[in-house]
Amino acid sequence: MLANITAGFQAYQLKREKAIKTLLIGPNVVSSISEFDSFLTWPLIDAYLANCQWVMNNFVSFNPSIEKKVRLWFSGVDETYWKPTCHLSKRCLIMCCCIEKQMRK
Questions:
Q1: Do the bridges between strand 47-50 and strand 70-72 make them parallel or antiparallel, or are there none, so unpaired?
Q2: Residues 85/92, Cβ–Cβ less than 8 Å
């Protein structure tokens, strides 16, 4: 599942109940390995899909036990395909704000 910790908890419960065979979490479900009671280290998670090498290295540096579970899955935007065809002024600003609602197990 992508960027949804609530769905992650639900999927974990389904794996516990043997309703699903393989549990892949990520990317962008947590911003730190210690979030949500260190959810990514829970034993029934088969793999965490990190969106870049930096995230993978960061998570492993804080918790080496996750190294065998982390896999790279580059999920980005192709900036050459989505490049605007018109000339943009240097005064143009694109701003994205995200608010994360944290839930505890």
A1: parallel
A2: no
Instruction: State both tokens at 19.
Output: 């309703």
Domain coverage including residue 46 = 1-76+83-105
In one-letter notation, the amino acid at residue 74 is F
Buried b vs exposed e over 2-11: b needs ≥16 C-beta within 10 Å? eeebeebbeb
Q: Show the tokens assigned to 98.
A: 């995200």
Please tell me the total count of domains within the chain: 1
Structure tokens given for 37:
């009671």
Task: Determine contact, residues 26/52, Cβ cutoff 8 Å.
Answer: no
Q: Name the pairing type of β-strands 24-25 and 70-72.
A: unpaired
pTM of the model: 0.66
pLDDT digits (tens, 9 = 90+) for 30-75: 988 889 999 999 999 999 999 889 999 999 999 999 999 999 987 6
